């Protein structure tokens, strides 16, 4: 029994007996201890009194306890959590070794050194080596006769002798030891270069090695055998084996040292009935000759080799016969043991790869490390195709062309990388996304690729170490510390060819980053390869441990068959999809992998699963996980279909969606090419289950897939189209693709729909052919309200059960095979999430909870996140770090059952309450474990009931200040995002929330139920924790909303100083001043009299606000409509109002005085000094407000008023400003104009010409005629006659001589009023003809020197669009004017366009069939023909349904154009053409075609709708 390689705590009775024999305890005492079943753990606690009871004598007790204490010392060091420091440079090597699981601690120096294992006895392993300063076990006596005894000789001084003296010293030690072994009939090894005494600084058994210049010295030394054994030298030669020189690895030394070992093997057939005496050689310094001692007989007594005395000789000779018999018996036993006791490599392989599970599934990821495979072994790697391989470190440069990679790519798509690809600097989430690490296997070519034409050719070992070793270290560090959590992956080394240093370096790096050997497995078919590997790998890891994790000598064909036997899924060469002819086609796995943005649900989904391997226990676990609240898996539905588990209840919503799909499937039903079906569901009501049941049950009639939203809509579209037409001959007959989108934002859904629509148009598919159905499943706290937006295509799923559903749930509860209390979510659902039931349940569980425990704190943290942040979770890795589970596990590291302990779920460490509240989740993409509270209503109730012990502000504060959670590297990005969202994420009705919140729900809750100060303190700590501009912005907003303006100013400035420089951040400082100004304004207005001095401070605050808004307006990172212009107008108008209340300006005459002050150089004496700092800024107010209004007008004229979700989140504007900015603009324009309207009837001194001009301008402005946006907004009035009347009033204010009396802007506005009036009332007497309007435009197209405003070019494109009727301007000139104007609009658009994508372009007019002004059709005319809710109308525009409306077809004119090189053009004359921008479902065919489309007019140029290839 080799007890040396096993930790004492794992010894059985036989191991203990062997150790007792070795230390010299009497046999009768050993028998007693064996009968008493003294195992290793018992041995460690045996006391002196216990030994006395067993009859031990004093000397034996002393020996036992002394040796036992020596034994315990190294064992203690194995579990020592803190690594000790080393004394002196000579121990540097051991620093790396100190992580070994079998360390030895010296009490004198507290230096922890690794243990070493002996070379295999009588084995010529040329690859074996020792590590310098490692410790060999103590010298031993004879245990059984075939287990070798060991003796050490340091040769520390002798190695410096001249060769002849060294030879004699070596021979004398070998001869003495060999003689003793031959007499004792015992195998033995004598080691030279190992410390044999402990008075030096070295330890007993420490490997030092000796320098050797001439290796032949040691072989020649055995030539003394003939003289030492004069008559028995033949036997001696047979028993004493040739010296073996074993290299000692020492990284810190350039000198190579060696251990010299001589094995003695006294086989019974050689030594039987013989007593051996030897003459030991000695060197006589005086005579300078070799002399021999008298012949003597030697024996082994414990670890020593004394002579047999004359008194002992007779009895010694008599005992030889027994020894011969014993030797013979043990040799025979050894042969039998070798024949029968072969290691069960199959079981060992499976335990190592699955962490002891009975099968292999996707819960573990695998990292493969390999070198070159020969062609025979490449036929035996099919098991790899069904392993969940995360990445491969491949050292074969030809792997892609003819090796493992080439072979693997027949089964799966891979991403090809090099080591430098992992040397990233961005955040982990972006890096993982960039390399698609969770979607495809990353194949890392560690030593270049021969087939690659880039700069990555293979290199030799030295070059590799110089250039690539550091990149290897970085790659492994990133994977182990940032991407994959501990215990979630296994590193598999397959040693398939000669071992080179880089492969061993990979082992060292993984061993270091993974803090040990757990989760590393080595497979080597060749024993020779393994020997070389282990000799190099032992620098990091002891030989014993290497053997524990290695599968050696097992043919790859056996490995292949063994692993496949426990894989849950068998390898299918092809999978199946439905096709249009009601049959199926094969989908190659590689093709499926290439559609990596989709999770395809196949006809034969899960059919490859081996139910027998899975077992009933696992089936029950799968079902139980679902009913505890986990997300439904395809496996649930597959098992239910096969009656392996219970049926999954179908809620009523399933039947509703099913009917919608059946209606869409019918060929006679009117449909779009892309349809939407929406499911809005309350969290935990089973909405996502309904969606997946739909996909499952339609997978044989349609092609179904779940969209992975980590990919851009363009990529998803590309893959969806590939799935749609895969193996189909006729594109107009393809089956529709049903795409499931879960919890996506509206922007993403619109982008995907647009991309799909473009693709369908490009492929010339019939518009009525149904190609794609987007099934959008979203959480909502008010599903019934959300259903009203698209009632025909939306289903709501609530917690309320119908009477039919109640029966199903009741019946299901009875049929479940496990206790209902373990399936809390199912029980809650059965109870319709009744609040009283939830309160009762939570109250019961919290009764005996320990409020101060870490587990309770963890429950609170997760509950806080889940209550306020949708889809939030905490990774199990974070939980373990927080609970300190890593420390608890360390104490088991020396046990053989480490795997069993290491891979228990952390659930076993949780309290009963935590086990009930938590559900452990696995990401469908990353398979990373995380936890959340089983339902967000439970999370809210936990916080509510614990509020008396710890408020939400206290829990949030503890969470923010928890260093362990924030410093934990794995999953850091998600964790930080969730916590950050607690402070900045607001609720929005547009996303299904019950209300629009002004702050995050947590902050609002604290303000309402606790107090404002706590919310402020919390946000301050959050600002420190995140150093984030947006968090500081929220604090500034909270402060100014509560009139704490001084502090708000400080935090708004801090937000401004932090990245990112976003317009909303800069805008916040303006909002602080604006609110501050409003507050001061309200106070001053209460006074009866206001002097100029009274408002100095208020004016200063207002002007600071205007300056802050202007700075924000200049920000490069701006949105489609910059909020800061609104802020500037708000402050400006209110400031003008304030000035009019100052006493000197408050009368009728004062109003004129104020106008003079604001519009001329005049400064009243009363304000000269008090306002001396403000005169210039105040006099510029009129122009600055007008400029801001024009900027708003320009933005609104260019873009749709449609905010992205991010913009909604950050926006600080009033509802009117956000939801209807055109209405706000009209109102503010009126306020502004009214202020500057001058009543001069009683004042003859005033310049009447100037005043009448200003009055006219302001009156026009007041009515809405001051800019293009407000003019066209008047057409949105449902009562057209009212809009017409207002437009006629505006037109009547313009002078008779339009060319002479109007400036450029006024002329543009006049012409737009004419166009708008023609849309509102075609028979109006105020209308001019199109020819007259074209004449008025002469000054625009004749202007050569100065650039015109884009609204002028917009007018020219409208009025001069070529038509058949004759006008005063010749046709070619009209075409030329129009072409140049549109080109100018394109130039403006390139400079000014800041909104993403052409979908945000605002189209004002479309080209109609009539002539003259009547050809210009305003968009509101078309919208009147589209009935339905806002969402339905929007969908009709996006889906192109609007263009099939008979009324629209009747009004609009189709234009003929052509496509060329991916662009769309319309020819306006023989010489010129105009580029047209395609919108919505209008996309271009790939080829050059003649096309027709509807033409729209925008400030970006002309746009095309509903493009069709001309027949």
How is this structure best described in words?
It is a single chain. The protein is an alpha/beta fold and 1511 residues long. 48% of the residues lie in helices and 12% in strands. The strands form 9 sheets. It has a 7-stranded parallel sheet with strand order 15-16-14-13-17-18-19, sandwiched between helices. Strands 3, 4, 5, 6, 7 and 8 form a 6-stranded mixed sheet that branches. It has a 6-stranded mixed sheet with strand order 22-24-25-26-23-27, with helices on both faces. The longest helix has 31 residues, at 310-340. The radius of gyration is 44 Å and the shape is elongated.
Helix content: 40-55%
**Count the helices. How many?**
70
Radius of gyration: 44 Å
Largest sheet: 7 strands, parallel
Q: Output mean pLDDT.
A: 83
How many extended strands? 37
Structural class: alpha/beta
Strand content: 5-15%
- Order of strands, main sheet, comes to 15-16-14-13-17-18-19
Coarse shape: elongated
The end-to-end span amounts to: 90 Å
Summary tags:
1511 residues, alpha/beta, seven-stranded parallel beta sheet, six-stranded mixed beta sheet, 37 strands
Quick summary:
This protein is α/β, with parallel strands linked by helices. It has 70 helices and 37 strands. The protein has a 7-stranded parallel β-sheet with strand order 15-16-14-13-17-18-19, sandwiched between helices. Strands 3, 4, 5, 6, 7 and 8 form a 6-stranded mixed β-sheet that branches.
Blueprint (SSEs and pairs):
Elements: H1 13-23, H2 27-35, H3 40-43, H4 48-53, H5 58-78, H6 92-97, E1 103-105, E2 112-114, E3 130-131, E4 149-153, H7 163-184, E5 188-192, E6 210-211, H8 216-221, H9 225-228, H10 233-239, E7 244-249, E8 257-264, H11 268-271, E9 277-278, E10 281-284, E11 289-292, E12 296-297, H12 310-340, H13 345-354, E13 365-370, H14 375-378, H15 382-385, E14 389-394, H16 399-402, H17 404-408, E15 414-418, H18 428-435, E16 441-445, H19 461-467, H20 469-483, E17 489-495, H21 501-513, E18 520-524, H22 527-537, H23 543-548, E19 550-552, H24 556-564, E20 575-578, E21 584-587, H25 589-594, E22 598-601, H26 611-627, H27 634-641, H28 652-665, E23 674-681, H29 687-698, E24 703-707, H30 713-724, E25 737-742, H31 746-762, E26 772-779, H32 783-787, E27 794-797, H33 803-815, H34 824-830, H35 835-846, H36 854-868, E28 874-875, H37 876-883, H38 885-890, H39 898-902, H40 912-917, E29 918-922, E30 929-933, H41 936-946, H42 952-960, H43 963-967, H44 972-984, H45 1001-1009, H46 1012-1026, H47 1029-1041, H48 1045-1057, H49 1063-1085, H50 1096-1113, ...
